[in-house]
Amino acid sequence: MNWTPLNQEEQLQTIKDESQERPVLIFKHSTTCPISGTSMARLERSWNEDEAKNIKAYYLDLLQNRGLSAAVAETFSVEHESPQVLLIKNGKSIYTESHFGISFSDLLTAV
């Protein structure tokens, strides 16, 4: 899986723009949380580039970017959770899930 680091608020507009052409995934991850680590590992193990339908994946380290996590929640009108995935299409969050509900097959269904 090729993660693009999400570490600047200006990237949120880039994500909105990119999502006009293809789906964009944001994974909000707490590096000290075992549930977050397990959720991320499960997603990475099941990720299949052929099936991913050109989904661009961003990774947000919550501990290093606490304020940015709040900006993500506000920008895409979702409640903050951790770990959490958001699938962005046409500038809007079309799918969000957290904890052990995060799954590659559900992301594909949402696309």
UniProtKB/TrEMBL annotation:
Q: Which domain of life is it from?
A: Bacteria
Output the InterPro entries linked to this UniProt entry. Answer: BrxC, Thioredoxin-like_sf
Pfam families xrefs: BrxC
Matches recorded under Gene3D superfamilies: Glutaredoxin
Name the coiled-coil region(s): none
The record, for NCBIfam families, names:
B_thiol_YtxJ (TIGR04019)
| Protein name as it appears in the record | Bacillithiol system redox-active protein YtxJ
Provenance organism: Arcticibacterium luteifluviistationis
